[in-house]
Protein 1
Amino acid sequence: CSKKKPPEPVEPDPAPQKPQSVTVTTPIVRTISDYEDFTGRTEPFKVVELRSRVTGYLDKVHFADGTDVMSGEPLFGIDPRVYKAEYDRASAALLKAEKHYKTMALLHDRVKSSYDKGIAGKDALDTAQGQLDEAEADIAYAAAVLELADTNLKFTRVSAPFSGRLSRRMVDPGNLVKADDTLLTTLVALDPIYVAFDIDERTVLRLRDLIKKGEIKSSRETTRYVQIGLASDEDEFPLRGQIVFRDNQIDVGTGTLRIRALLSNPEIERQPRYMLSPGQFVRVRLPIGNPRQALLVPEKALGTNQGRKYLFVVTPENKVEQRDVEVGAQHGEYRVIENEKMKPEQRVKPGDRIVVE
């Protein structure tokens, strides 16, 4: 107990560390347009389900499945023999009615001459006039029957109502085709083409607020466009479409408003000839508001903490401070900084040095 404790060793002071080197950049000022991105699907400009207008056995198919056809090109042939016989019978009936009318006309003239001379009575003249009128009506009836027979005969030839691309045939030759019932194939027009997409209610209200303030005009008053990109292009929007349709109500199930844009379908050198096909997934960028000056920083300079975005800024004293920021839309490798939504002391200035690495 009387022994003295040895003195504790004294640790040397740690060597001062050099300040850490960081890579910095300054924000850029650029004229931008705000936008919202949505997903969409392509829809054909025209689509028709081809069916026969007459009943009969399918005789011929004039196309290969999935080919492109021109307007008026024959596609299917129904056995025309029955309808050709009906046409010939109607044609003969019309000829008979015309011959009968000539006979009644001659009889009427003879009776009229006899009546004028006082030989025939008034009842004979009335009978001759009635027979002439009936013969004239028979001609009109036979002409209508002939027109119907001619129409049915023409309906045995099913043609393309417009230029487009066919689906596969649903019926092979030899099968019975029922009028207005049996589906033969489907034809779609590929150029131009629609892009349909749904915008959420929040964006709808934002757009209406801008229209109310007079900052933008409705697509019903002026032409508005959207940018369209393919699923394979992550950042590119090479196509441009014009808004041509807005639904008249918001879908209560999804809370979205259906929009449709029309664009030209780019042609390619090889088959399938067109870049877009109906039902294809696309990305749609909808510009919101007028172009404005904005401050942008590199996307890689932003950090995230519990859902909040922040930046590291180097002060004039070469010290690093963290600033919480409000961000807007992304433009390439840069992100918009919404200074007007931030506190004055947190705002980013064009000359600030932003840490990127």
Protein 2
Amino acid sequence: MPLIPYANLHQEYLEVKPLVDQAINRCLENSYYINGPEVKNFEQRWAEYTQAESCAGVSSGTSALMLALWAVGVRAGDEVIVPSMSFISTAECVSQLGAYPKFVDIDQYYTIDLDQLANQITSKTRAIIFVDLYGQTVDIDRIRAIAGNIPVIQDSAQSAGCQYQGQRVGSLADLTCFSFYPGKNLSAIGDAGAVTGRKDLIDIIQMIKDHGRKEKYLHELTGWNERLDAVQAAVVSAKIDYLDRWNQRRQANADIYFELLANCDHIQLPKLNPVSSHVYNQFVITTKQRNELKEFLSNKGIEAGIQFPLAMHQQPVYQTNIQLPVSEQLAAECLSLPVHAQLTADDVRTVSQAILDFVN
């Protein structure tokens, strides 16, 4: 393991080991594997935490997006507007339903450019997805005003615990999709996800995630097998009470970066949207010397990441002739520094000093 790892899942586990071990053992001792009380308990707790009408636990953040799109009525031939800078799932799920992702550039906060969004809506637009990239969200009131009657889906895979105007994400869009993939602010020990939001839509997702049924062997819809397994539900539930304190540690680590790197030449620090808190699933700087800096840090035992080296409209599967310059520049220059909750203040100072050494 590097001297300062990008993520430290083992240290996170040790911090909550008794609770996580109890959760897993409870599932094993009671043979809770699929559905059952552990999943229902998680769904109730996550709905309460996010202040959402309802919650459906699902098998991954990707399945959350796909099921949300289907629930709001996206079908083959429709268009769905998405920001180009995101993990591939955001567009991939649109394509899997036979619809077409319509890519929009991002703004200075690395989230969907709302000025461009308004000009991209057509008669074929069936939904809009916005992404809380790196851990902060957008002006949700404005995006809902722009959308009008078009369903709005929030991709909160990187923003669990983030607040918009003082209210936690999860109830502010028609549907909000979460990922609990290891390394997220709130993580499982495998793939796991959830959708929160309007109860009428969550009721549909509860059916289609489980072969289109409400009760065993009575199938009302054609669905999928995208259930959240009970072990993952139990583990995530065990960690919910830690999420806010872990986010506060991430924010404290980010504050140190801001202080120490404020006057660092050739390094651009992230801009903070005043309508949103930032939970720093990633702390992303940009520099034209991204690859050289990443290698320099690696040689000092510091692990950094790149989220993401290509915008979605640049991916081979989607390559188009459109130009989205802000997304393209971010993809070429972004570098994610360690910011996780198990990082110490001294670790952050060490990373910062290494960056200053590189620049100077």
Protein 3
Amino acid sequence: MPDANSKTSGDPTATATVENVEPKLLLSGEITPAFQVEVKPEVGGKVRKIYVVPGQTVSKGDKLVTIDDTDILTEKASAETEIAGASLSVEKTRGNYARARALFDQKLISKEVFANLEADFKISENTLEKAQRKLQIVNDRLNKTTILSPAAGTILDVNVNEGQVVVGAASVNSGTVLMLFADLSRLLINAHVNQMDAGRLSVGQEMTIRFSDDESDKIKAGIEFIAPIATVKNNIKGFEVQAVIQENKGRLKPGMSVSMDVPTGHADQVVTVPVAAVFKEKDQKV
């Protein structure tokens, strides 16, 4: 009869030990920035200058791209000419209207003549106002030929080249994506958790991202969001879970896939034995 403590090949017996037990749920997810946007132009045209490269850090308001403004400057000159002409017309019709008002008050001209001169004056004022609005629209478009950084962050990717013609983003189309911009100071982990395991998670719960077997080589994250409704991903029904990474120090980057341990309980001083001592494999003799 073999010794109860022996561990010969094929012997399923093992020594029981007393330990602290902390069961963990193993999850996998993908790193993504908390704030990430596609930078698009609001006006179309040829890319004149690109001021950044992938990986470059920028501040809010830094210049990213300029679009060629030659055509818009031509429109601006035309609008300014229209304003000059409309202004002269207003001055002329204002004088006519003022004289007509004096004559009409003295009953020296008919009401019909006075009404026509008054209408001419109002039409000229309307024409000037329209020309001024047109110039304002052109100036707004001109300002939009310079694309600035929406916030402090990092350029992840640049999708266009200098000289390339791009399409402005509008309600009828999506526009050309110039570059991908993100704030890497706050990274998230997006995971899809099986519906059987999702009930063991809660907002605020901590998880550990491991890089090796070294206990000191780990990064902490905290669950920030658990979807209220299940979704199907890769034919598995589960819940979207989002966690915030703490003290990243540049080790994790967007797009990386990571594995995480999520503690789901704790028990002190319990008797433990290896699984192999409890369950037997196929064809294993007991």
